[in-house]
């Protein structure tokens, strides 16, 4: 092909991992997947630049670089995005107590915006009009990546091979992909791929697909990678304290290790290590993907699980009741959806995130915890904010207000309730007799 | 006093417990508290009928009956409200995943409506124009009880001694109350009261006040009553399965005990026993009372903790994504507030609860769990509802829809995002460079 | 073509209207559009059954029938869906005060579910595996129709010619379509099509596209069809009363016409006639389509505008404050979105609608109104529900509660506010000096 | 009385108005009310400083000053708070489209925070430990004032005579108050008070109480003060344009008067004058007071009605769909409640308001309107924001995206709907047959 169709920036994967977003995950690991895509793009007449992001996953970046260049990439970029991942994505999500469908801490979702931004910056600099990735056509990550691309660089053109019929029909089975790899002299790892796919970063690891697709299959014990089995965790609880300023962790103290951490990334990594040792942070769920498909996923989010528990606890002591209620109902829920659905670079994210600082102004203080065999146990908390007042809440002494005030409060609160009750009685619908709780509906 | 001022139905407490709502909780246990109130009401010229509800708390009802009559109650009523507590209050709350401020399962709040309704039924039957209780003037329970009274019987008159200055000034210290008890020949328990107050029922126990008022004080190990310390729990995990129909537990199987439970109350009690043994269900929080005061509470909700985890999990498999999201944001949050604030007998409860059945129509299936040293571990789940489709979610095969459809989906989803990004670029506010996440606010 | 590809049920349009959903609306009126599609489907080898719904639009159904059969339809079905349109769609929306983006009363959205259901019933009966329509690929209605089809009959196959490249490229201009019509001997109306497209039913008419695409173009005076210009409306106001039972209109009285209407459909049509005469119900907006595109639309919803004003007013008198607030925030907003986006036959609609009856149990009473040159003026309202109490709200006499109770209420309400203010003062952030309202944010 | 009990700052009212918050509104106009309170406070041994705020109401401030000093006030302060009323309260409420219970624009609520802040500043400066007002014990304004006082100066002590039994029993009728006025030589206005009470400022006037307490009584024609009757309004529509920047009006042009206004307060007053002439801005409702009592109120909000209509319209053109939806559901509704309930100086207001700027960044453009006999008619709108794209929304040409993309979008959107429909069919609950819309509930 004498003339290039253009330059493509390819989200490349390294040598060992398997990707949750690889279509055919048990057939091709992520390396084979994006290496084959690399070769295929060149075959289609594109010039390809390979891109990798270091978001804290365990990966041999140098091997990946060599492989990408060997397969034919014009250039290879490795961007260390760990710090912005922690400070720009993880910490706002922590401040907002983000959680998806009550359980999932959004570890994969949180990494996508920084990776996508890293890619768009390189695409800009390297003059790439196209971007490509190895995500399957059924998952969340294709959506998250592409919406992020468009939110940053609306004229970027996306090549998603696993959604292009001529690609996915050609490589419909493991043999076809292996044959192609052999033809293109792409080195293939010899060990059998695990029967599930994973996505890893410093926040978490996810497990999906393969044998996990039966939601009643218990994950094998050797699947879990980032935490020990609670049964193998130490018999002795681990004490630690976390100090927050404006809702963010600023100091972690581990007394029996005589250690103190104050850097944002360091804090996160230290908590990961502690949680790993004590079996903290495993979940196993069926979740609803953005595209409307139900999907089973297992996750380990070790440090994040501790941080969330501590942050939620400290808000009890330091956050006003009404702010907390409004924040929970709107910011927590909406930002979690925004993250899960890949809507980070959108006006609604800009809008919702703008309300976080006012909600965290008073979230200052210290939480004492223990880790023990999978449990995060709150031992106590303190703050100088002054919204908690022992004397006022005390059952044992007067303070703050007169008991007679409460009589007035209850009388006023009951005005409309009495009116409703009187109307019920007039209609013969008084509520005194037990009945079906749903029975008073009509 | 020759002529009675009227008949009072008094919420009476038994012989051993201490009440979270006793003003002066370390001075007077609940028995002394309401026994003294009983005597005082008689002294004021009222005829008093004593009422106790059996909502599953550990209590010597017969001793209480004798004491109440000895002090001067005209009659004594003990109502067994356990079944309606479980079926009318606990189960709707379970279906809606109710939880207050992310953590508290609302055990005390849930019992109040059935107790209040039991009282109003007796008040009706016995011709009591007045009702009285021993709640402090600073807590939630006075509000919950009284709003429930008014929502059922809007003309009832409430006598709340701990909010009447002549009462609370007269009994401002332990000595005054003990002297009064001696004067009135009220037997007083000899053992020292515990340095906190409690409220117990079959759902949970709460600990509050006293030494717990310092939120940084770790509760003493011997405080916890309904669960063993996770450290003392068995080394071997306990397997069990819970089957749900329309969001309610209908069968609990404990394989290694060869036991099956199918009755609503039995299920709850069996789960309590299992959770107790395995240290499941302890929390320690600072919460926001309805009256706007922050308060520290510790709670054990053993069986409820298991049920909630199982129910939330099964909804992942069987509940539509959009129904779940709407239910979480509206029903879960609003019903939890309604319960906490004692608004059960109100039009808003009637309204919110009416939406529960439609949300639970499909929540049918089985969850397999393990209990282990404080952990509730989901092992798997199954259902014949058919909303989960392995083939559709599979990364390994085509199914359900074409990968090309997702391209269209992403294109349509990106229309407004691209417009926003283009406007940002025109204004020189493109998002490609990292920046303070809150920085794009203005 | 010897063998049929299958049977298609085609949503056919009659002789005179222009459709908002016709692609190329100024080129082809709706009749030409679906008549050409009819011919084209036959050409492709399908057997076609034509379907029309009478939802109250002004149309010559007999002419349409003849034309459809002349072009080659095997059968023609005309379904009168007016009553179910009113009772199953319009009235729940009225009870919930549905409105999209503060202004649009959802007239087109409301008709789609009944039309789609009518089609699926015929498709079932006539053994049609396919369904087809003439909607453009950019609008809301394609989405609404198709999601409704799938929600009723998930295995139906949709043929949307204006989204099939071979169709929309072939008929890319008026000449091509006219030539095709001539070739197929499809009679074409001689009068010039209006420079906008419309959709009409008994609830409303919409105007869109064409010259209206410039959002700064004022619609021409002769565009409006269902209402007179307020300037041409009578100088004398029109009095009427509407009686509601459980939130639904059950009696409309027009005193100076000496008329009373009690039938659901009759009520709606009578209000349409009155509103038309008095210029009530015009709007002109830019709205956000489900697919994320902004779009300008003008609408006339005459009777619905009166009904909504009266219903909202009566709720002031008869609906509990908290139920109203929760209903507004959740049911009104969510059901409006559900309707607009065509999600009627979904689990979330089932869920949200299930909460309506409990919200309307008390909405019983009478509203007196006047119509005058575009205005709907509330003159008074009455009800025997008893939630309003003159004595209680009176500024001129005591009643219902003691003024001293309010002191207690305010004291309790201020507890957490004082704590916050004290903390502000300690931090030097007291609010007494005027400042930028957004300035206290950080 | 030899020694003062302390200094009281009294919210004093002038000579002519009647106050909605005066208890006994038909007996005593506001002047008599607070003049009598002034005399009474002095009688109780307080030193009194009188305070008036100019928030745009029609009032003879000089006469009021003379009267206050004559009755015995030590000092008299008149604060002009019009500008901060407009810029700090009205404009954020406009940006957020605030409205209470669908109809009320919150004119009284909006003035309270600036008045309360003005008072607390004087109380600080003048060393007043006490503050007093003439509000009734049943209304909203007592709550709004006092919560604002406490949110600014938590140690202020409030004297609310109409909630003090010895005061309200002593002055239980007009004669008692007139006799007291005579005794204290307080001049009393001779004209009969109107049979309702009012509250006026530059935003609006409210009418309440008296004959309006019957919700079925039509207000008399001569009650309305700030707008002409639409029937008396000019036959010729009035054209005007409003330009917004970041959601705030920055330029109003009245072509046929050849006038342009650019100052915030000027804009508001000019719109008031135009709306008054054309009969724009009257409402008549039954609303729910914060204390849970239903109350009938009539309001004229002339300029505000125009501004809201224009702002809502421009948001259609310039605000992202998802931001609009989230803002409507959370900020609009919550801030309206906050304002109505007097929670301006609270952490939740700080939180909610902090989200406004991000929602208004793109709300820039021009709206053309006409006023005609009570109607605000949108004629067109324009903006250079670029979120609206004629080509993209056009039904007449391709643009922005491929029609085939919509096919993919609909397929993906229908995945979970089809699953639900299939489950319904399996259960014999397919939705094809018409049925009671609420019937699928259980």
Q: How many β strands of chain A by DSSP?
A: 14
Q: What's the number of structural domains of chain A? A: 2
Q: Averaged pLDDT of chain A, please? A: 91
CATH topology tier name of the largest domain in chain A: Rossmann fold
The general outline of chain A is: elongated
Question: What is the helix content of chain A?
Answer: 40-55%
Keywords (chains A, B, C, D): Amino-acid biosynthesis, Arginine biosynthesis, ATP-binding, Ligase, Nucleotide-binding
EC number (chains A, B, C, D): 6.3.4.5
GO molecular function (chains A, B, C, D): argininosuccinate synthase activity; ATP binding
Subunit structure (chains A, B, C, D): Homotetramer.
Question: Which tags fit this structure?
Answer:
five-stranded parallel beta sheet, Rossmann fold, 442 residues, elongated, alpha/beta, Argininosuccinate synthetase, chain A, domain 2, 14 helices, 14 strands, homotetramer
